[in-house]
Amino acid sequence: MDNKVLKVENLSIAFxxxxxxxxxxxxxxxxxxxxxxxxxxxxxxxxxxxxxxFYKPDEGDIYFRTNTGEVxxxxxxxxxxxxxxxxxxxxxxxxxxxxxxVVENIMVGAHVEFKASLFNQFFRLKKTRQEESRIRxxxxxxxxxxxxxxxxxxxxxxxxxxxxxxxxxxxxxxxDPKLIILDEPAAGLNDSETLSLVNIIxxxxxxxxxxxxxxxxxxxxxxxxxxxxxxINFGKLLAIGTPEEIQGNEQVQIAYLGKExx
Length: 262
Ligand SMILES: Nc1ncnc2c1ncn2[C@@H]1O[C@H](COP(=O)(O)OP(=O)(O)OP(=O)(O)O)[C@@H](O)[C@H]1O
Hints:
Elements: E1 4-15, E2 18-29, E3 33-37, H1 44-51, E4 59-65, E5 71-73, H2 79-84, E6 87-89, H3 102-109, H4 118-125, H5 129-145, H6 161-173, E7 179-183, H7 191-208, E8 211-215, H8 219-225, E9 228-233, E10 236-241, H9 243-247, H10 250-257
Parallel strand pairs: 3-8, 3-9, 6-7, 7-8
Antiparallel strand pairs: 1-2, 1-4, 4-5, 9-10
Helix pairs in contact: 3-5, 3-6, 6-7
């Protein structure tokens, strides 16, 4: 695991007779932006769900270098336990609390364990003023970094989609993650929002010793951002390589880009 933050080994999971992920292995370097691509139904989301242990894999191991530097197998661990070890994810459907302000949503991120109890955690937090002010300061620093400080006291409800995506990412950063998993971060964004997100993700990589694993259909986004890409189809590995290598890979072109139809 030298220089690796995540090592997925021989991962398999089936639903009924369908092998959604089939003996898949890949690893992610510390500080790397790593993309997982594949056609619809290829198994990408299932891989994410296995890494976060939302699904229990049938076979395989998932080694993770935690925020204390130890390497642990995540298989069998609870999802909230994994978050505490420095692995956080964002969702395709943004999961923010619309009735709270931007900064309050970020502050909640410091205490995310179960989505269902976010409200409870937030209000309990208010009792400990000192802790609250430390967390608020940190939340504001992160918002400042993302160019969102001016809207910190506005409600999340009504914010443009691109801003919501940034807020969700800012919330993930509150946990000082070693690895952030992004589920289709560019989906629904216009060109300038996408560009802004690309720059933010690059900054996170540069400044935080943090790795990023993302699923994305927008190939321009993936190619412009990722250090390496893993392409899968029918749950199986097709190829791992740099964006150039993946673009030039015939198997990938046939499976993912539909080149055989050209
Ligand atoms: N909980 C589940 N129960 C049954 N089948 C599932 C479940 N989750 C995923 N699958 C199946 O596993 C396969 C892989 O699905 P998955 O959602 O991981 O693909 P994907 O690559 O993320 O697709 P997309 O790009 O469309 O989001 C699909 O055939 C899907 O129908």
